[in-house]
Design a protein that fits this description.
The protein is mainly α. The protein has a single domain, classed as MFS general substrate transporter like domains (Growth Hormone, Chain: A). It contains 19 helices and no strands. It has helices at 20-40, 46-53, 57-85, 87-104, 111-121, 127-138, 144-175, 180-187, 189-205, 214-220, 231-239, 242-273, 277-289, 294-333, 338-359, 371-390, 399-416, 424-437, 447-452. Helix 3 runs antiparallel to helix 4.
Length: 453
């Protein structure tokens, strides 16, 4: 096999597993999908946990924060680790070790023990960084936004499916005569086993880059940046880049809000509209189901804007959909009729996930020598946003007012993304690469956006 880290795929051959690029494509989204089952599997069952452990609203708020807080630090660490040892081994470790607290949460018998295990489970959320890193090194600039958005979106789909499936698994155990207190504990064993098995599959089914694993490439190409000792210096260089922090803010305003909705949606519909937990879970699941196509749309349009208007075009598209998200969330927060609440939530979800896809159509172009570090920091922004939003649900503020405040904040964040700039050299480098891989007609650009940089 010819070992080269640069032979990236220029198209997504969706129904093929013949190439390492497409095997990675499918295994990354499946792994991330299962991580959502472990990460948020307990969320639609919180009605029963709240009753059994006598949890207060403040304690539930703390649990929501705990579920996403540790992921901030884990995403930073995992991003650096991907640059250091490669995504294949990093994902294997995260999946197998992450399965332990998922299965162990069934042993929680108090608020404190449940809180600590919920905190530990949050580490699984770092899987997103590996998913984005792995597809970023496998696909070329003309399709990278679509590939990143689709793998992440189909993985995020697990957040919606979880809301629907976990109550069914819970009901399965209840049907066999177990109490509700025992059933929610047994239900969490299912995603834990799935995570462990997926860790083994990922190790044997993927490779780090199109040309092989980091170890092989390092031996054949000493200049390859992966697995080098300077990965820490690259990480520090990324931290000094202000564009990374604008993307950190943008991702906090979209993925952070998705995490928040995943945590509170079922409780919101139970408390606000007096629905049964199973019905509330089904409705809450509609929010995540939009990931089936919405995040892909965000990345695909990011690619189209990028081909036509350069890297600046990707940034403008991100700002547009983020502004749409903020306005739709404000609308959702004011709905007092069930059918209108559901309808506005679905439209809001469309913009949330398009914003996420748009964000990671920009990320791979910030620093190509430290994609893991950039992905880790920006990914951590999502969890930082979720933690910040979580504090609004701890006190006396109603859920509706909390959502209104978040919507206004997202609208403001949309304008900050327009401050992201790329140099003429960065634009030219990507343009030259597109010239090599695209037919002349498909690669026609509007010069105005490029000149604006």
């Amino acid at each position: 096999m010819t070992i080269t880290p640069h032979s990236k795929a220029t198209k997504i051959d969706l129904f093929s597993l013949a190439t390492p690029q497409m095997r990675t494509f499918h295994l990354t989204w499946i792994a991330f999908f299962l991580c959502f089952f472990g990460w948020f599997g307990i969320a639609p069952l919180m009605v029963y946990v709240r009753e059994e452990l006598s949890l207060t609203k403040a304690q539930i708020g703390n649990i929501i924060i705990a579920s996403v807080a540790i992921t901030i630090f884990m995403r930073l660490f995992i991003g650096w680790l991907c640059d250091k040892i490669g995504p294949r081994i990093a994902y294997t470790f995260l999946l197998t070790l992450g399965s332990i607290p998922v299965m162990s949460i069934g042993f929680a018998d108090s608020y404190l023990s449940f809180l600590l295990l919920r905190l530990a489970i949050g580490a699984i959320g770092a899987s997103f960084v590996i998913t984005q890193y792995h597809t970023s090194v496998m696909f070329a600039p003309n399709i990278i936004g679509t590939a990143n958005a689709t793998t992440a979106g189909w993985g995020n789909l697990g957040g919606g499916v979880t809301q629907m499936v976990m109550p069914i698994i819970f009901g399965f155990f209840v049907a066999f005569g177990f109490t509700t207190g025992v059933s929610w504990r047994l239900a969490m064993i299912v995603p834990g086993i799935a995570l462990f098995c997926m860790g083994i599959i990922y190790y044997f089914g993927t490779q780090d880059t199109p040309g092989g694993n980091f170890k092989d490439i390092k031996e054949a190409y000493p200049t390859f940046h992966g697995a080098k000792k300077n990965s820490l210096s690259n990480f520090l260089l990324v931290m000094k880049d202000v564009r990374v922090w604008f993307l950190f803010l943008a991702y906090g305003a979209c993925f952070g809000i998705e995490l928040t909705i995943n945590n509170i949606a079922a409780l919101y519909y139970v408390d606000q509209f007096k629905l049964e937990p199973a019905t509330a879970g089904l409705i809450a699941g509609l929010f995540g189901l939009m990931n089936l196509f919405a995040r892909t749309l965000g990345g695909a349009f990011g690619d189209r804007f990028g081909i036509k208007w350069g890297l600046r075009g990707r940034v403008v598209w991100l700002s547009m959909v983020l502004a749409g998200e903020g306005l739709c969330l404000i609308l959702f927060s004011q709905m007092n009729t069930l059918i209108l609440a559901i309808s506005s939530m679905i439209i809001f979800s469309l913009f949330v996930q398009m914003s996420e896809g748009a964000t990671f159509s920009v990320v791979p172009f910030i620093n190509k020598k430290a994609i893991g570090a950039v992905s880790g920091i920006v990914g951590a922004g999502g969890n930082a946003g979720a933690v910040s939003a979580g504090f609004l649900f701890r006190g006396d503020l109603s859920y509706q007012n909390a959502l209104l405040i978040i919507g206004l904040t997202v609208s403001v964040a949309a304008f900050f993304t327009l401050l992201i700039r790329f140099s003429h050299e960065e634009e030219k480098e990507v343009g030259d690469e597109l010239d090599r891989i695209l037919p002349p007609k498909q690669n026609e650009k509007e010069p105005s956006f490029v000149a604006a940089t």
